[in-house]
Design a protein that fits this description.
- The protein is α+β, with helices and mostly antiparallel strands and 165 residues long.
- It is built from three helices and seven strands; from the N terminus they run E-H-H-E-E-E-E-E-E-H.
- Helix content is 32%, strand content 26%.
- The strands form two sheets. Strands 1-2-3-4 form a four-stranded antiparallel β-sheet, with no helix packed on it. Strands 5-6-7 form a three-stranded antiparallel β-sheet, with no helix packed on it.
- A hairpin with a 3-residue loop joins strand 2 and strand 3.
């Protein structure tokens, strides 16, 4: 039986008329989108449960125990609110000449470039965030937020057709 020779250099393989996808978002998106919310929620949930279920006589606090328990529950609720309104909205974004590909690491969606109205750059929590504003709401809403990666500036120089806000 003849063995087929598989090329190791894939740069010269035909692309079937399509350009390659370019990752626009940062590799840290996975850390911020998955690890930080889950780790923080598990830690604060354990702290809250410990405060709620430990007997009052075992807690040596300078304030009444009820105040401490209420404070920990409020802290936990604020954490969930901050996560859902900021970090949980970050997506991973890839692009080629015809579409952008957006994923939240569970669901992936493809949008044609014509669906993007504009983009804006903002600072959130000390980090630069890019928002793609869609003409109509899609699977992830009408704003796609992501942390720009190192290739975003190169992509922006080559594809300047989307007006910035």
């Amino acid at each position: 039986m003849d063995r087929q020779q598989i090329p190791t250099d894939t740069a010269n393989l035909p692309k079937n008329g399509h350009s390659r996808q370019m990752v626009l978002s940062s590799n840290l998106t996975l850390f911020w989108r998955i690890f930080v919310p889950f780790f923080g929620t598990v830690f604060l949930s354990g702290l809250m449960l410990a405060f709620l279920f430990i007997d009052e006589s075992d807690l040596y606090l300078p304030v009444p125990v009820l105040w401490a328990r209420v404070a920990v529950v409020v802290l936990w609720l604020l954490w969930l609110l901050v996560i859902s309104r900021t970090i949980w909205r970050l997506k991973r974004v890839d692009a080629d000449d015809t579409h952008i590909y957006v994923t939240n690491y569970w669901t992936a969606v493809r949008y044609p470039w014509q669906d993007i109205e504009r983009y804006e750059e903002k600072k959130r929590l000390g980090r630069r965030v890019i928002n793609f504003k869609l003409r109509a709401p899609g699977r992830f809403g009408d704003v796609i937020s992501f942390l720009p990666g190192s290739s975003f500036e190169d992509w922006k120089k080559r594809n300047g057709e989307i007006p910035a806000a």
